[in-house]
Amino acid sequence: MGEVIVITSGKGGVGKTTTTANVGTALALNNKKVVLVDADIGLRNLDLVMGLENRIVFDLVDVVEGRCKLRNALVKDKRYEGLFLLPAAQTRDKSSVKPEQMLKLCEELRKEFDYSIIDCPAGIEQGFNNAVVGADKAIVITTPEVSAVRDADRVIGLLESKELRDPRLLINRIKTDMVRRGEMMSIEDVKDILAVNLIGIVPDDEKIVVSTNRGEPAVTDQKSLAGQAYRNIAQRIDGEEVPLLNLEDDEGFMFRLKRFLGIKST
Amino acid sequence: MDENNSIVFKATNNGLILLMKEDEDFEKIYDQVEKKLASAGRFFKGASLVVKYRGKTLSPDEAERISQLMSDITEAEILAFDEDTNHDPNVLENSFDIEENDQPVSYIKEYYFKGIEEGVTKFYRGTVRSGQLLNFNGNVVILGDVNPGAEVQATGNIIVMGTLRGTVHAGMDGNREAIVAALNLQPVQLRIASIITRPPDDTGVKGPMVPEIAYVKDDMIYIERFLPQR
Asked: At A106, phi and psi to the nearest 5?
């Protein structure tokens, strides 16, 4: 039996879809059978980030309304074996799916796939309820900003009330130099407020924008630091012990030397 | 309607539909199916058929008997015999009137929109944006763009007087003669009848902005300029 993991945040624009695409791709790279479910009906994006938009024929709403079989709606990834996308409908809205239908869908996906990763819409309304109802585990994404942390806190409370205990926290878009200057909340600050276990930290990386626009997840880029962070997170989901990416380590003489020589990226 | 007229066979794209009078006795229907098939059923010898039935609800037992009878007489392989839930009232109402007595099996193509030469047309003024669905039983002319994430579905032709970047489906109910044309044709996905295409994956080089037309030939969608080349 596979695992169903929901990726949620409350606040919009903190990187749920990017994380879903990257973590899912990284898991598939580790030879797992993975399905990415876009639960953001009416505002779908995951297909774009995966570069699979033009392959969609049926979608999640078609499946729950019985217009097609689940197998027909799954879009096979163009690069990796064992990676599939269940796209959301674009011309419908969140009320097109009921939590019971979503629960049933998750049960079916669980039989087929090692990991079903659900990309939750922003907000805490019906879309959130649909995305969360069939999940066994949750990953809450936040950025080191007060507003995102506040929303993450709200979401963690809601998840707990829905019996989704022990969500894992992912802190996205950390800018090391700003943290060092004391202009941005540090990992410790965020952990102090939210008091949940970390599953990973992802540095701010301009390459993410490029990879999103191209429809190629950043994990495929071996040089991308964010890609490395997502690969580590996938390994942790898979039950391996991987140390957190040490973003601070490059501080000091070597870092400055490297930067001076123009080989900053590790 | 005389006594021999309680059933009608209709041919569809992928099989047969058996229409039955709702209040007719099952044994009578059974006899008539036997009679009709005896006179014309050899036509189907060796074929594989999907048969659906309408009008009267049959018990599993009765359905099984008719299915058996049909495969015995026609020597065709009956792949499925189920009630047709895809209800089309037009077909049902007229079906008994258009039947000819001397022709036991009537071969009528499945109904689809045929007004692509001249027929009912919707004119839509403005941009069709992401998440919007424009669906029309007839031809559609859009005086504006179709953006990615938008969907336009029509049973006839689709003409976009602007840039087509979304998903379009012309000839939705099966008309392969339908076309899609746009001043700038860059769709995410383009469907005509049951044929689906998408642009190749190598991104980057987008063709020059010339009016293009998409049509079906030999089960493939072809795209070409529709203005004389200059």
From this structure: -60, -40
At how many degrees (to 10) do helices A187-194 and A146-161 cross? 30
Does B143 contact A at CB distance below 8 Å?
A: no
State the smallest CA–CA distance between residue A43 and chain B in angstroms: 7
Closest Cα of chain B to A188: distance in Å? 41
CB under 8 Å to B111, separation ≥6 — which residues? B88, B90, B91, B173
Q: What is the pLDDT of residues A176-219, one digit of tens each?
A: 889 888 889 999 999 999 999 999 999 999 989 999 999 999 99
The nearest CA of chain A is from the CA of B31 a distance in Å of 36
* Cβ contact B52:B83 at 8 Å: yes
CB contact under 8 A, A54 and B151: no
- Residues whose CB is less than 8 angstroms from the CB of residue A16 and which lie 6 or more positions away in sequence, other chains included: A7, A8, A9, A119, A120, A122, A141
Residues B71, B67: Cα–Cα separation, whole Å: 6
Residues A246 and A249: their CA atoms lie apart, in Å, by: 6
- Average pLDDT (A237-244) is 90
Tokens coding A180? 């060092």
- Whether the CB-CB separation of A200 and A170 falls below 8 Å is answered with yes
Q: Is residue B55 within 8 Å of B21, Cβ to Cβ?
A: yes
Instruction: Tell me the pLDDT tens digit for each residue of B125-139.
Output: 999 999 999 999 999
Beta bridge partners of B169: B153, B191
Sheet of strand B167-170, all strands in order from the earlier edge strand to the far edge: B133-136, B151-154, B167-170, B189-192, B195-197
Average pLDDT over chain B, rounded to an integer: 81
Q: Is the ipTM of this complex over 0.85?
A: no
CA distances to A257, B171, B207, B209, B213 from B142, in Å: 60, 16, 22, 18, 15
C-beta of residue A6 within 8 angstroms of C-beta of residue A137: yes
- B132 and A CB contact within 8 Å: yes
Strands (E), chain A: 3-8, 34-38, 75-76, 83-86, 115-119, 137-142, 168-174, 198-203
Which residues, including other chains, have CB under 8 Å from residue B221's CB and lie 6 or more apart?
B190, B192, B195, B197, B214, B215
Axis crossing angle, helix A225-237 with helix A206-214, rounded to the nearest 10: 80
Model pLDDT, residue B88: 47
CB atoms within 10 A of CB B218: 5
Which has the higher per-residue pLDDT, B76 or B177?
A: B177
> Could you tell me the CA-to-CA distances from A54 to A34, A236, B107, B134, B169 in Å, in that order?
20, 32, 38, 18, 13
For residue A95, give the H/E element and its range.
Answer: none
